[in-house]
Write a structure and sequence with these properties.
Blueprint (H helix, E strand, L loop, with lengths): L2 H22 L8 H22 L2 E10 L1 E8 L2 H5 L3 H12 L2 H6 E8 L3 E3 L13 H10 L7 E5 L19 E5 L8 E9 L2 E3 L3 E11 L4 E9 L2 E10 L5 E9 L4 E10 L11 E9 L3 E7 L4 H10 L5 E6 L12 E5 L6 H10 L2 E6 L5 H7 L3 E16 L19 E10 L3 E9 L2 E13 L2 E7 L3 H12 L3 H15 L7 E4 L3 E3 L5 E6 L12 E7 L5 E5 L1 E2 L4 E4 L6 E9 L5 E9 L12 H10 L10 H10 L6 E10 L4 H20 L4
Parallel strand pairs: 2-3, 2-5, 5-6, 8-14, 15-16, 15-17, 17-18, 18-23, 25-32
Antiparallel strand pairs: 1-33, 3-4, 7-9, 9-12, 10-11, 10-13, 13-14, 19-20, 19-21, 21-22, 22-23, 24-26, 26-30, 27-28, 27-31, 29-30, 31-32
Helix pairs in contact: 1-2, 2-14, 7-10, 10-11
């Protein structure tokens, strides 16, 4: 308190004493105990009121101790149980989290991970994935800018995500506690199998298989690819302690149209502890139709290469780059992409009057808009010679096909001459044009359909920058390539519009997410967000039927069918208001990635420990780990002195005291007949 506050408080004491003395003791005939009590109560009342008027600031100091956090993270994936290390993992986990020395020094916090990262509420070792890089990302977010050790109880076998070794902060020590039998057993394993989902009829499709071997002697293994009782490929592979891996590349014939389910197997005469990882099922859908796209341009431009690579990311598409004078017959093509048409394209437009091939017209700074006005009937162009940058604005009401906003508003602008673009017929705009953030009520990317012929119009060049920006933001071209593929898919199809459109894969691996999406359109072909969609899924072998509701998402309805056992399934999606239905089928392939391991990955976890200046331990060394953590002087609790200042007016108890003294004085005076 300040000097003024102290002086005022002393003065308040004097005034309170003087008032109580004058009212009860001065010239009093007798000074009984009642009189003295009343004087004391009056003294407290007057002094309390004066203190409230002075309102001194009360300062309080408290000491707060902050311990260093110690996250103990345990692997809850099924591989722990498959390695028969679940009891071992639970034992060391209980010992660590309940250790009194650790709890005295650290703020012990426990977590679990499999495909998710969660507080360790329930451990059942049934997780279908081991996504260990999530541990690193979540710990960084939870303990930002803190220095702390981490205990990681795991077998080190990662099944998805980025490499976890370099995901952890190298400045924070990680102490892996490796569970499972580290004894090396002889084991042959199909580590990975790569194959395209689609192949074309009467062609050959590649299959790439990576084989791993663990053992101490040289062996010869037999590798086969079979379909039913037919052996499609068989070869012998030699392994030794010095040669522990092999890559097999095979070309298989696509002789039958439809979904082909195959099996890759590696075996030997030696006995193995785990034979589940010797087999991997895979599937290929053989199709007999390929979309031929003619990309016609008179000039060279980066857009051409970007479009070709993007469209051909779907194996069902083939893009041929042509100049206008190189086209003699349009019958070989399903779609025409006309890049910045000029008068040189006259023969192409004339041929297409008879061929009636769907087109995608892309304009830019070198486009002859007078020529376009004469040779198409969708838009009227009144353009100037001034160039302008146009940014896209996604139209959420677009309903020709399902497409999410992939971040169009953040894409670089497209260049096109400035002018007025008027639609002469009904069009559906996916992207609207903006200039410096202002919507100019003109299309940037539109679609039209006239007498069964479909057309797309993109008004601007430098589309390659969009693909590059998509990669920079997502670390993948996938989003942009899906955008281009859906445009091509719309143009390649002339089928009548359906009210119920369902999207699904023909096959899934067990353990993967099984997602089916649907869209329902009303009679005006407007997306009906109030639709009620259900799905009935039937196992063709057991005839068991499961029913689900499809939930509303952005522009679609979707359902997740995770947890279905391996087998063939048929399904029917139904819209309850209109009774519109769609029927289809898919197969869940028998594949459990968590059963692929026969040993913990000691080397990987030891590398993680070295990368973070920590140390890897075995379960029988848990006491050494506890001693290491408790003896580490770099982790000390921090004491903070917290000073809190509060005015006396905030003390509710002083008001309660004043009320009590006044009430007590009144009752005493009343009782003794002094009122």
């Amino acid at each position: 308190m300040t000097t003024n506050t102290v002086l005022l408080t002393v003065l308040a004491l004097g005034i309170a004493f003087a008032v109580s003395f004058y009212q009860y003791l001065y010239q009093a005939k007798s000074r009984s105990k009642v009189t003295l009590l009343l004087a004391f109560l009056r003294f407290l009342t007057v002094f309390g009121i004066l203190l409230l008027l002075i309102n001194p600031i009360i300062t309080r100091k408290t000491v707060e101790t902050t311990k260093v956090p110690l996250p103990i993270v345990i692997d809850n994936s099924a591989s722990i149980a498959d390695l028969k290390a679940d009891k071992q993992a639970l034992g060391v986990w209980d010992k660590l989290k309940n250790n009194s020395a650790l709890n005295a020094k650290f703020e012990v916090q426990t977590y679990q991970f499999d495909e998710d990262f969660l507080p360790s509420d329930t451990l059942d070792f049934k997780g279908k994935q081991s996504q260990m890089d999530m541990v690193a990302k979540n710990l960084k977010n939870i303990y930002k800018n803190q220095s702390f050790p981490t205990v990681l109880i795991s077998d080190g076998n990662q099944t998805s995500g980025e490499d976890y070794v370099f995901g952890f902060d190298p400045n924070n020590k990680v102490y892996p506690l490796v569970v499972g039998d580290t004894t090396t057993y002889l084991d042959l394993r199909i580590a990975q199998l790569n194959v395209n989902k689609y192949a074309f009829h009467k062609n050959k499709y590649p299959v790439e298989v990576f084989l791993n071997y663990a053992g101490t002697k040289a062996i010869n293994a037999s590798f086969k690819i079979t379909q039913g009782n037919s052996v499609l490929n068989e070869q012998t592979v030699a392994f030794s302690p010095d040669k522990k891996s092999a890559t097999i590349e095979v070309l298989l014939p696509a002789d039958k149209v439809g979904l082909q389910v195959l099996k890759a197997t590696v075996t030997s005469k030696e006995q193995e502890k785990n034979t589940y990882n010797n087999t991997k099922n895979f599937a290929v859908e053989v199709i007999d139709q390929k979309t031929e796209v003619a990309l016609v341009a008179e000039m060279s431009h980066p857009d051409l290469g970007a479009l070709k690579r993007s469209i051909e990311s779907n194996a069902q598409r083939k893009v041929t780059l042509l100049k206008p004078n190189q086209i003699s017959d349009l019958e070989n093509y399903n779609i025409l992409i006309l890049y910045q048409p000029t008068t040189a394209f006259k023969s192409v437009f004339e041929q297409n009057k008879n061929a009636k091939i769907n087109t995608w017209i892309i304009t830019g700074n070198d486009t002859d808009f007078n020529f376009l006005n004469q040779n198409q009937t969708v838009f009227q162009f009144k353009m100037s010679s001034q160039k302008e940058d146009f940014r896209p604005n996604f139209n959420a009401q677009f309903n020709l096909f399902a497409l999410d906003n992939i971040g169009f508003e953040q894409f670089p602008p497209l260049e096109n001459p400035f002018g007025k673009i008027e639609a002469k017929t009904n069009t559906n705009t996916l992207l609207e044009a903006t200039i410096r953030g202002v919507n100019i009520n003109q299309p940037l990317f539109s679609f039209a359909e006239i007498q069964g012929n479909r057309a797309a119009y993109l008004f601007g060049e430098n589309l390659w920058k969009w693909r590059a920006e998509s990669y920079l933001s997502q670390k993948s071209f996938a989003d942009f390539d899906v955008f281009a593929d859906k445009t091509i898919q719309y143009l390649v199809s002339n089928n009548a519009r359906k009210s119920l459109i369902v999207t699904h894969e023909r096959f899934y691996n067990s353990g993967e997410g099984i997602e089916i999406t649907a869209q329902y359109f009303n009679k005006n072909y407007e997306l009906d967000e109030k639709a009620r969609l259900t799905i009935a899924v039937t196992n063709t072998k057991t005839k068991q039927v499961k029913k689900y509701d499809l939930l509303k998402a952005t522009n679609t309805f979707q359902v997740n069918l995770d947890g279905l056992a391996a087998g063939n399934y048929t399904f029917t999606v139904k819209e309850l208001n209109s009774n519109s239905t769609y029927s289809g089928g898919f197969e869940v392939l028998d594949f459990d990635i968590e059963k692929q391991f026969v040993n913990p990955d000691w080397n990987k976890l030891n590398q993680l420990a070295q990368q973070t200046q920590g140390k890897a331990y075995l379960p029988n060394q848990v006491d050494n780990l506890i001693q290491q953590l408790t003896a580490d002087e770099s982790y000390k609790a921090v004491q903070k002195v917290i000073t809190k200042k509060s005015p006396l007016l905030d003390w509710i108890w002083l008001l309660v005291l004043l009320a009590a003294t006044l009430t007590a004085e009144w009752f005493i005076r009343k009782y003794n007949g002094l009122l």
